[in-house]
Request: fold
Amino acid sequence: MNIASRFQTQPEEGPLVQITVDGTPVTAAANMTLAAALLAHSGEASRQTMSGAGRTAFCMMGVCFDCLVDVDGTPNTQACMTIVRDGMVVKRQSGLRGLGGGRGDV
Reply:
């Protein structure tokens, strides 16, 4: 497997969904992971660490936790393990994730 084979272009046909990312409407292919949709949309960091360093999806398989976002008011959602659905509201996170699933902005 080479690195190019790990990335596929977004399908040009097929069902689409509308999500909102930090107040901006974004169109994504249905059945795509949220991490892939965020990377396809802007490639910007999906969260910031306590020091302000940007992080975004890295492993795309739920191991690294660099893709944590707030989905519909639920913080610490792994974007790489979440399938987009129509009407989803996504917010980028900053700071530490809390113990027990709380946001923990310290």
Summary: The mean pLDDT is 84.
